[in-house]
Fold these 3 entries.
Entry 1:
Amino acid sequence: MQKHAITRLVSLVIAASLVLAACGSGDTDSDDTTTTASGETGATDAPTQPGEPVRGISDDNVVSVGAWIAESGPLAVVANIANAARLRFDQANDEGGVNGYTFDFTSIDDQSDPAQTVNAARELWENDEVFALVHPYGSGGMTAVEDYLRENDVPTLFPFADSRILFSEEEGAPDNAYGFVPFYGDTIRLMLEYAVEEQGIETLAVLHSNDVLGEAGPDGASAAAPDLGLEIVEEIGYDAGETNFAPLGRRVAESDADALLVWSFSGSTQVIEAALESGYEGLLVLHDGYRGGFFLNSLTALPYDLEGRAITNVWWTPVTESDSEVQEYVDLFNAAYPEGDVNLGQSGWIAASLFLDAVDQTTADGSELTWPALKATLDSWTDEAIAGSRGINYTADRVGATQGKVRLFEDGGWVDATDWVTYARYTE
C-alpha cells in the first residue's frame, strides 16, 4: 500500500498494499445534463445512441470506476476495503471480464480527511472521468461532498457511509445514488429490541464520538427508546482525538445503565476498558465494526470476561460462516494479503461484486453498457443476495440493505443471537 496523500490503485495491475466546496452546475443546451466546474458533462439519464462514446468506458470496453478511502492516517486500516474491491475487479479481469467489459478500479487516499475527500471526488469525476463511484468510504467525507455529487449527478454506488447523508427521508436520494449501508437507526433498533426482549434491559447509556458517524448513535437510540420502553440515563460524547479515557469510563460506570450503546470508532475500546475498570457490568451494544478483525481483536484482548455481555449486528454474511461465495473471498483475500484484515475488507469485495453483477445483468443479452441501462437494472432489484450481501432492494428506497441480524459474544467470537430480520421500516 502506498503511503501518499493520493494513491491510484488500478485493478489491472496488482499493487502492494474502513470513514467542499460544492461546485454548481453550469448551463448547458439540454436540461438532461449537468456540468462540473471544469466544464465536464455530468451523468445523464438521457439514452446514449448506439456507437456514441460512453463516459468512463474506453474504446476497447475498459470500464473506469473509483472511490476515495483512507489508506494512510488514523484510519489507514480501512485500506483493506480498497484492497478487497481491487481484488474482486482483478478476478473478473483475469476471468476474461464481463460480457466483453473489463474494469479499471482507482482509489484515492483521502486520509479520512473531509477536505481531502473534496479533492478526491473532483479528481475521480473531472480528471479521471470515471463511469461511476463504487464504494467510497467515510461519513465525514460523504458529508463534505454531498452537494457536489447531487449537483453534478455523479453515479454513486454502494457508499460506506451514514445513509442519512445521501438517502435522508426529508431530502430524498440523488437520482444517481444507490446505497449499501442500512440506516444506522435501523441496526440500533434491531439490537436494542433484542437487548430488551432477551436480556431484559430497561436503562441505556450512549457513548458516541462527536462527529457525523457518532451522532447516529444517540439519534438512533432516542428514536427507538420510547417504542421499546427504554430510558436513556446518560449520553457521553467525546472528540475523535481524545486520549484521556478514564473519566469517560467512570461516567459509564456511574450511569449504572443496564446497557451501553457504543457508537464510535477511534478510542471506543479504550473507553470500554476504562468503564470495565471502573466496575461497569452492563451489556455492551456495539457498532458493526466489532463484527471481526481489528475491533474484535481489541475486544477479546481486554482482561475481562465478556461472555454473553456484548452484542453487535451484521447486514451481510460474516466470513466465519460456511457460505461458498464468502469463503471464495476469504481464500483469495488471505492469499493476496496475508497480513490484511479479511473481515474489514469484506464490504469492498461485496460492493465490487454488486457492481459486476449489475453489469452482467445489464449486458447479458448483448446490450451496450451505459449508465441509464445500469440504472434500470438496479431499479429492478428487489431481493438481491450477491457475494454475501442480503436483501438488497431498490424498489422500496435507495438505501439497499433491508435485513440484518444480531450476534452475541461467546467463546471469544460471535454467534447468531437472531435469524435474519427485515428492518421494521420495510415491514410497517
Entry 2:
Amino acid sequence: MESSRGSDTLALRLVFRAAGAPGRTALPQLMDGHLVQRPHHPQVRAMHKVLYLDTNSFLQLRDLKDLAWTELIPGVKAVDLVVARAVIDELDKHKVGTNQRRRDRSRAALRLIDAASEAESRSIVLREAPVRVVLSIAPRRRVDYESLGLDAAEPDDRLVGAAATHEGAEIMSHDSGPRVTARDLSILAHSPPEGWLLPPERSDDQRKLAEAERRIKQLQDAKADVRIEVLGAEDDGKVVARRLIPPPLPPAVANRLTARLIRLHPPVDLPSAGTGLNAQLRLAGGQAFGEPTIRRYYEDRNQWELEVQRWTSILDRHVARRTSEVKVRFGLDNVGASSAENLIVELETDEELSLLADDEDADGLLGSLTPPSPPEPPKVRPSFDITDVGLSLAQPVPRRDPTAMSWIDRPRFGASRASYGCEDFRPGRKYEDVALAFRSTEAGGGLVRIEASANHMPARAVEVQIRFEDASVEWTDERVLAALPPDVAEAVRAEFS
C-alpha cells in the first residue's frame, strides 16, 4: 500500500502537469516533508552546470578533463562534476575486479576522488579552459527515498536521490535506467555523446592473441638500439665553447683576497715537548712534538701562503685558461629491446681540438681554479698503533660490474681519439657524459665525433660542431663565480660587492 506522503507527491505532480505548469522546472519536490521548488534560470544554468556522474562516466568514457563539454551543453562555461557515495562504492568494487581496464580506470578515478576529498573545498580543478571543469564530492544530505519513490538498495536510485537533494543539479549517465528515474523527478538527465566513449573492450581471446603477437614481435625485434643525443647545443646545432676573460685583479684586491683565503685555513697550535727528561717522555708517549717538527710545519705554512699569493695575483689567467676547456654534453639511450653487449663509445676530434680524460687531467693541463692546499699538520701518534702489528688479511677481489663504464683507450696529452664502454648496456638505460677537450689552436672552432657500437647493433654516430668564443667579463659575472670553487667565489663576491 502506498504511503500518504507518496500519494501527496503523486497528487502534486498531477496537479502541476494538469495546470500546464512548465514541465520539470516548475515541478516541486517533497524533501523531508517540505516542498522544494527547483528554479530555472536558463542563462545562468547554461553558463554553469552541476552534473552528477554515474559509475560508467569513469569506466567507459575518455578522461573527464579531455571531453568537449560544449558538445553536451552548448555555451557552458563551467562544469561541476559531482561524485555521489553510491558511485564511490561501485568504483571500490571494480578496483579489485578481474577486468583489467575497469580495474585500472577505477583505481585512477579513486585517486582523483581521494585528492578532491583531501582538499579544503572537497574539490579539484581538472581543467581551467576553455571550459572550467571541477571534480567535487557530493555533500552528505539525508535523502527521503520513500517520499521520492526510490529504492535505497539500488545504486542508480541512490545516485538520483543524491542529485535530487542538490538544487539545480543534473545527471549524466550512459544507462537509460537512472536517466528515466531522474526525469520522473523532473531532474535533467544527459546521455554522453558516442564520441566520448572508449573503444570497445577486447574479449579475453582477443587480448591473449594480441599479447602473443606482441611477444612474437618483441622476440623478432629483440635487438639493442643505442641513440646518441647532444645536450645543450645552440639553436644552430653547434656547441659554444666560451672562454671567460676577466680583468687582472688590482694588487690591493689580490692581497685582501689572499688574506681571506688564508684565514679559511688557520694554523694549528702544535704542543711542544719542551726540553729535558719530561720532553723525552712526552715525545715517547706521543703527547707533543719536537722543535724541528714544529718549525718544519710553520715553514711549510709560510711557503703555502706565498703560493696562495702567487695564485691569487694571476687568478684572471687561471680563469681564462680553465674556461677555455671544451665540454660536449651528450646522452646515450638504449631504446631497443635487448642489451647492447660490449658497448663501445668512441670519441674523435679534428686537428683544432685535443681530448681530455677527466677534470683531473684538465687541471694538470689548463691549471686549477682551486687554490693551493695548506700543509697538513703533523699528527700525534699513539703509543700503541695496531698498524704496527703488521696484521694483514686477504681481501676478496671485487667482482667487476658489467654495467660500469670504463676506459678502453684513455686519451693521453694531445690525443684526438679515445674510447670507453661497458659489457652490458641494458634496455631502457640512459647515460649522460661529457666529452672534454681543449683548444689545440686559436681557430674559430672545431669538431667532435661521437660513435656508439655494440654486438649485433648497427653503429650510430653524431658530429658536433664547436664554436669558440671569447667573452670579456667582470668578476661579478655569475659565469665566473660559478666556475670558481664555492669558498673562492664567496671571497671574490665579498671583494666586489
Entry 3:
Amino acid sequence: MALVEHHGHVLTKDELMERVWPETFVEESGLARNVSVLRKALGKGYIETRSPFCGNPVQAVA
C-alpha cells in the first residue's frame, strides 16, 4: 500500500520500512525479499530500485 500511496515518488528503504512495519524491527533483507515477491507478482516495470548511493532506493513507477 505504501508504494501505491506514493506512486511515482521515491521512498528510501527507511521510509518504506517505517510505513510498512511501523514501530517494528525488520532487517533490510526482509524488505528486499518482499520487494522481490512484489516484482515477481506484478512483472517488470512496476517497482524501480535505485542505487543506495543516491539515497533514494525504491520507487513505484507504474
